Amino acid sequence: MFFCFNTLIKKTLKIMTLKYVNNLFENLIDETSKKSEIKIYQEFIQIITSLENKDLSENEIKSIETELDRMKLDSNSLNRRKYYKKALNDFKNYLKETYSLTTKGYYTQLYGGLGLSFGLLFGVAILSNLERSLGLSLGLIAGLVVGSIMGRNKDAQAKISGKML
């Protein structure tokens, strides 16, 4: 009888460390001259640096590094800006959903948009007795101001509680 033995290949799991990702994006900044790409890379570096400075447990760090590895950040894509912008948004969502960590201005931006929406409705429904465009303008301005103030207040609470990167 003839036996054929397949060789077993042990796969090693390479997990991206926070330092590796930081160095990766610093190298990408050196390689490009496009401002839009540099802005994305700098935002990634800022988030990674903030995570390194936070007092996270070993399990939390491993979980974050596993998520970074899952994103395959060291792959060469044709459209880097689009690829890394999507990866950045996915990473921010992961941090928000898993650890309730937000970036600076997150709530200001969110509440400002909501304020605009409600301001538009307010301008159409309540201020419609004024000239139509004046009512819309005042409603949008009021909504944006109120939403931004609420968002800044929420951002300040997140910073105090240590949930801001």
List the helices and strands and how they pair.
Elements: H1 18-31, H2 35-53, H3 58-70, H4 80-99, H5 106-125, H6 132-160
Helix pairs in contact: 1-2, 2-4, 5-6
Structure characterization notes:
By secondary structure, the chain is mostly helical. Mean pLDDT is 87; it is low at 5-13. The termini are far apart. It has helices at 18-31, 35-53, 58-70, 80-99, 106-125, 132-160. Helix 1 (18-31) packs antiparallel against helix 2 (35-53), helix 2 (35-53) packs parallel to helix 4 and helix 5 (106-125) runs antiparallel to helix 6. The longest helix is centred in the last third of the chain and has 29 residues, at 132-160. The chain is built from six helices and no strands. The protein has two domains: 18-99, no CATH class; 106-160.
Structural class: mainly alpha
Low-pLDDT segments: 5-13
* Main sheet overview: none
Strand content: under 5%
Q: What is the first-to-last residue Cα distance?
A: 65 Å
Order of helices and strands: HHHHHH
Could you tell me the radius of gyration in angstroms? 23 Å
The average pLDDT score comes to: 87
